[in-house]
Amino acid sequence: MSKTVTIRVPDEVHARLQERANQEGTTVTALLTEAAMRNPRLSDPASLARAAEWVHRHAEEFAEAFPDEEPAAGHRPRRHQVNAA
């Protein structure tokens, strides 16, 4: 199951996030999730592998629950391969 996290950001920050998401054909949610995953505290190979597997298992569930958050048709975010040591 996924969790909802609510954060408050200044209007200017939200506008910049939305603009970047539009340019990349993705969502603000996806941008923030990717940024959180780059946090060094979450970047050990085992944690990344578990996170990638979780995202993969729940992708369809998320798409059904939040259709407006899905990337534009024909565009899928790049998949990052994680080599667990």
Question: Would you summarize the structure shown here?
Answer:
With 85 residues, the protein is an all-alpha fold.
List the helices and strands and how they pair.
Elements: H1 11-24, H2 28-37, H3 45-65
Instruction: Report the sheet with the most strands, covering strand number, pairing sense and barrel closure.
Output: none
Q: How much helical structure, as a percent, in the residues? A: 40-55%
Number of helices in the DSSP assignment: 3
Strand percentage lies at: under 5%
Q: What low-confidence regions span 5 or more consecutive residues with pLDDT below 50?
A: none
Rg over C-alpha atoms, rounded to the nearest angstrom: 14 Å
Q: What is the terminal separation in angstroms?
A: 27 Å
Molecular structure report:
By secondary structure, the protein is mostly helical. The chain has a domain at 11-69. The protein is built from 3 helices and no strands. The longest helix has 21 residues, at 45-65. It is globular, with a radius of gyration of 14 Å. The two termini are 27 Å apart.
Keywords for this structure?
0% strand; single chain; 85 residues; globular
